[in-house]
Amino acid sequence: MKKNILLFYSLVTLLIVACNKNDIHNTDEEVGISRVTHFPELTLKGDRYANVVLGSAFTDPGITAKEGATAITYTTTGSVNTNVQGVYILTYSAVNKDGFSASIIRTVTVYSTDAGAAANDFSGTYLRTATGFASSWTKLAPGVYLVTNPGGASIGTNTSVIVFNPTGNNIHVPSQSISDGTEMTSSDEIYTPGSPAKYVWKIINDSYGTGLRTFIKQ
């Protein structure tokens, strides 16, 4: 009889434990007894690279910031002076309720390009034969290009800069902040059209040497 009673209580205990396990529900906010953290998700409105003619208006389209499905506030640092040519960085940041932060950037270019340069299209791949590394040019606006690996070296394969072609065949990297937080510009630039086209310049940045770099269009 005692064995039957013990067996009965054992079965009841197992049923209670099983019921308690089934009562644990997973939701968007909880998994078991743990609360879910939703990291800030930031999405740019408008283009990653915005290009503004010198003296014209620029309206920042902003971003969408969410924590899970909930919209959250964000802050913007940086400003754009449309009366001064240059490359401007806007940084958008948001923090979730648990203190985790995220940020995203937009590059705004204020440019002035004459008719001759506006007709140019320097887009393409340019090989630096001295290293075997190439730079890629993408035209963003008249006389404005996005150039990856401007040094044609192994250290800068993920680096991109804005390059101006304001008049004729003149090219220049205006001073700007790059991905590692340092400033980059150029000097001694010469672009020579032809078959193939080529250009030379010096990259001014602490991580690069001071030598003249030659690139040939592929």
How does this structure look, described?
With 218 residues, this protein is mainly beta. It has two domains: 40-111, Immunoglobulins (Immunoglobulin-like, Sandwich); 115-217. The chain is 11% helix and 43% strand. It has helices spanning 2-22, 115-118, and strands at residues 30-31, 34-35, 40-44, 49-53, 63-67, 70-71, 75-77, 86-95, 101-111, 124-128, 133-141, 144-148, 160-164, 176-177, 183-192, 198-204, 213-217. The strands form four sheets. It has an eight-stranded antiparallel β-sheet with strand order 13-12-11-10-17-16-15-14, with no helix packed on it. The protein has a four-stranded mixed β-sheet with strand order 4-9-8-7, with no helix packed on it. The protein has a three-stranded antiparallel β-sheet with strand order 3-5-6, with no helix packed on it.
Please render the helix and strand layout as text:
Blueprint: H1 2-22, E1 30-31, E2 34-35, E3 40-44, E4 49-53, E5 63-67, E6 70-71, E7 75-77, E8 86-95, E9 101-111, H2 115-118, E10 124-128, E11 133-141, E12 144-148, E13 160-164, E14 176-177, E15 183-192, E16 198-204, E17 213-217
Parallel strand pairs: 4-9
Antiparallel strand pairs: 1-2, 3-5, 5-6, 7-8, 8-9, 10-11, 10-17, 11-12, 12-13, 14-15, 15-16, 16-17
